[in-house]
């Protein structure tokens, strides 16, 4: 294998305050300091495409190079699934190959969450034909399939690419899918439509091999949504719609957000970015991350650590001096979100008079068969435009008023609810132990059971409530920013045995009063005791809340 071409860099003076010894390329580290960096230097992750298409379907699973299987495949959205039947307690003690099933998860990137009905039908058909009819809408607006065999990947990619979709850089140490508002371009109150800048960045930079060996993943959001549904606070980079008093609509730039095991909320650089400069500025920040990001330890390789160590002023001045053609003007902060829920569920009138209809599956789990039906409904009742949201939900756009009731009824027949309970609306779950090799706990099934029981036992509870269920500390379903955040862990049961359960975090919130949830040392619940715990917690809140209280304040 050949070494990738590293982008040229000018020699830079070393700041005395700059953390040393973290493997930053900009400080002259050229040799990999861990096996992941070695794998990336040996060959760029994107180069594995050729072998996935032309070699491995013939060798079969057993012929796949382990460095490709557990490394480079991710650059094309392929992860090995967890072998069924392995308990959460064994997750940390088994070798990766002992956890590997012979099937893959396939993530399909949907920048801005946008799909046509034709594209959704193709995803749905792949799910039904090759993936045992399972499909998950993720909280980053992707669709993730399961049970994929290596032999079927060429046909799957062929079908996706023929319809204008890709799995490129949907995982790996790369610029991942760019979040966008599902109502971009149709919301009457939006500050600015970010569709064009998302498309420009994707077209110019996804697949660019100067950006495909980052220290770790790089998550982006671009939106003028008045609800701020793309959650700019927890992305590596976010462009948030604002109106500059002299320069008009554009974006406020945020950097350094991210959750996982060391959560940090993003910070404003205090700059205004005109739409024309978004690609340049996005490119500048990702290059800064590539060059200055920490590469010694993967647990510290996200942009958030660099931003926290070096501070906003260093990030802004380095960005402007080393990566941009000209300094950025100062700009205003975003207004508070219009709706703290930020999810686009329900019926909302578009600015052209049609309606956007957002609906809720249970914790993002669907089938290919159901997705085919959704695509057909989007054609029958709308104009074939479908969006995924950042809360594992879907939206059909462009529905005439006279079609609303019929569409809502047909969705309900598919168990897709336009006016869901607060529990179905507010509950998310990550992949969990069903498929994820890192998981300690089952999640999607626990979420479904929890929703059913909460609806049955607390039918009058009507306050918005976020319940985010995660199978391990990696926070893919954002447990730190939920009202009730559940982090998969082994916890003691009544007999002192360690069993699957959750560490509880309470009071997380994004919006006007962004804060991370509080972890209480004693607040652990077994998976079997989850329903009773949440019901008891909410009943206690109902009993004691005063007028004007919200659960988030309690
Ligand atoms: Fe897997 Fe953990 Fe992420 Fe859930 S939070 S999908 S268990 S890595």
From TrEMBL:
Function: Catalyzes the reduction of sulfite to sulfide, a step in the biosynthesis of sulfur-containing amino acids and cofactors.
A molecular function (GO) term: 4 iron, 4 sulfur cluster binding
Keyword Metal-binding: yes
Start and end residues of each Nitrite/Sulfite reductase ferredoxin-like domain: 101-163, 348-413
PANTHER family per UniProt: FERREDOXIN--NITRITE REDUCTASE, CHLOROPLASTIC
Keywords in alphabetical order: 4Fe-4S, Heme, Iron, Iron-sulfur, Metal-binding, Oxidoreductase, Thioether bond
One Pfam family hit: NIR_SIR_ferr
Signal peptide: none
Name this protein carries in UniProt: assimilatory sulfite reductase (ferredoxin)
InterPro entries: NIR_SIR_4Fe-4S, NiRdtase/SiRdtase_haem-b_fer, Nit/Sulf_reduc_fer-like_dom_sf, NO2/SO3_Rdtase_4Fe4S_dom, NO2/SO3_Rdtase_4Fe4S_sf, NO2/SO3_Rdtase_FeS/sirohaem_BS
Similarity remark: Belongs to the nitrite and sulfite reductase 4Fe-4S domain family.
UniProt domain Nitrite/sulphite reductase 4Fe-4S: residue ranges: 171-322, 425-549
Annotated segments matching region Disordered: 1-42
Organism per entry: Parafrankia soli
Catalytic activity: hydrogen sulfide + 6 oxidized [2Fe-2S]-[ferredoxin] + 3 H2O = sulfite + 6 reduced [2Fe-2S]-[ferredoxin] + 7 H(+)
E.C. no: 1.8.7.1
Cofactor: [4Fe-4S] cluster
């Amino acid at each position: 294998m050949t070494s990738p071409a590293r982008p040229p860099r000018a020699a830079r003076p070393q700041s005395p305050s700059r953390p040393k010894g973290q493997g930053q390329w900009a400080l002259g580290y050229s040799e990999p300091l861990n096996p992941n960096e070695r794998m990336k230097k040996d060959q760029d992750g994107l180069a594995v495409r050729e072998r996935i298409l032309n070699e491995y379907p013939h060798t079969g699973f057993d012929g796949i190079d382990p460095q490709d299987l557990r490394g480079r495949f991710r650059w094309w959205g392929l992860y090995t699934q967890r072998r069924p039947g392995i308990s959460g307690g064994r997750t940390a003690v088994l070798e990766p190959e002992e956890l590997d099933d012979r099937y893959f998860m396939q993530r399909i990137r949907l920048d801005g969450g946008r799909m046509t009905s034709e594209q959704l039908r193709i995803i749905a058909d792949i799910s039904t034909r090759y993936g045992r009819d399972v499909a998950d809408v993720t909280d980053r607006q992707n669709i993730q399939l399961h049970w994929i065999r290596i032999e079927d990947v060429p046909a799957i990619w062929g079908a996706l690419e023929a319809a204008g979709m890709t799995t490129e850089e949907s995982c790996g140490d790369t610029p991942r899918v760019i979040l966008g508002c599902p109502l971009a371009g149709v919301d009457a109150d939006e500050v600015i439509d970010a569709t064009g800048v998302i498309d420009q960045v994707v077209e110019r930079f996804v697949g660019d091999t100067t950006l495909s060996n980052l220290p770790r993943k790089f998550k982006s959001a671009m939106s003028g949504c008045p609800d701020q549904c793309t959650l700019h606070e927890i992305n590596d980079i976010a462009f948030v719609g604002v109106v500059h008093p002299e320069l008009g609509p554009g974006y406020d730039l945020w950097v350094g957000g991210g959750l996982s095991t060391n959560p940090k909320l993003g910070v404003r650089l205090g700059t205004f970015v005109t739409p024309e400069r978004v690609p340049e500025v996005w490119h500048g920040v990702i290059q800064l991350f590539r060059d200055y990001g920490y590469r010694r330890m993967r647990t510290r390789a996200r942009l958030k650590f660099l931003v926290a160590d070096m501070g906003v002023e260093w990030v802004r001045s380095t960005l402007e001096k080393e990566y941009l053609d000209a300094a950025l003007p100062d700009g205003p902060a975003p207004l508070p979100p219009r709706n703290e829920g930020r999810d686009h569920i329900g019926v909302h009138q578009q600015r052209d008079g049609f309606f956007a209809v957002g609906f809720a599956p249970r914790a993002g789990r669907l089938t290919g068969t159901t997705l085919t039906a959704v695509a057909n409904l989007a054609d029958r009742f709308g104009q074939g435009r479908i969006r995924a949201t950042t809360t594992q939900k879907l939206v059909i756009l462009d529905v005439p008023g006279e079609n609303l009731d019929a569409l809502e009824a047909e969705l309900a027949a598919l168990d897709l609810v336009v006016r869901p309970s607060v529990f179905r609306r507010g509950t998310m779950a990550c992949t969990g132990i069903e498929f994820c090799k890192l998981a300690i706990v089952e999640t999607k099934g626990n979420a479904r059971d929890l929703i059913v029981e909460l609806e049955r036992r607390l039918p009058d509870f009507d306050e918005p409530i976020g319940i985010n269920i995660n199978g391990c500390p990696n926070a893919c379903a954002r447990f730190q920013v939920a009202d009730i955040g559940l982090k998969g862990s082994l916890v003691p049961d009544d007999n002192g045995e360690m069993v699957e359960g959750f560490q509880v975090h309470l009071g997380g919130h994004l919006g006007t009063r962004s804060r991370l949830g509080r972890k209480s040392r004693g607040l652990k619940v077994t998976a079997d005791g989850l329903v009773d715990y949440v019901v008891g917690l909410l009943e206690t809140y109902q009993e004691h809340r005063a007028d004007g209280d919200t659960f988030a304040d309690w």
